[in-house]
Amino acid sequence: MTGQGEVIRCDKCGGIISERQIGLFNGMVEALLKVWQWAEEHHKYEFARKEVKHLFKNENESARFGDWILFGGLVYRPDGKKGTYGLNLERVKALFLGELEIPTTLWKNPVTHEIRKEDYRSVGNIKNLSEFLDENNEFIALYRQPKEPVQTGLF
Q: Taking the model in full, what pTM does it have?
């Protein structure tokens, strides 16, 4: 696994208990814009990923589109299943008008599934996060020690 930072593992099961960073990058924003424009043109706001896959520049953008569910309530799963999405039109429009700030960094705790949101910005202030992409333009997983002691409850 590619990554930076110290990966902490459970003494009992060996699973990763470090928080994992999920970072927003320009490609995600560009993909959301294209999907929103497609949705407006087709008057279709709930769709399967395969319907919009042609709008993504690469597999990374396609795979990461689902992460939008975690960033500011812009995208949701209408049926609760992976691969189907809906757009919250008011929030997406507000984002692209610069009226909405969303987190640009999330930290996901693998044990509690809690998500910490950080570094809120409007679309005009989302910095280029290409430093979080590797040579293949794929997201580099970053980890950090959880802010609070981890109780796995497994043993």
A: 0.73
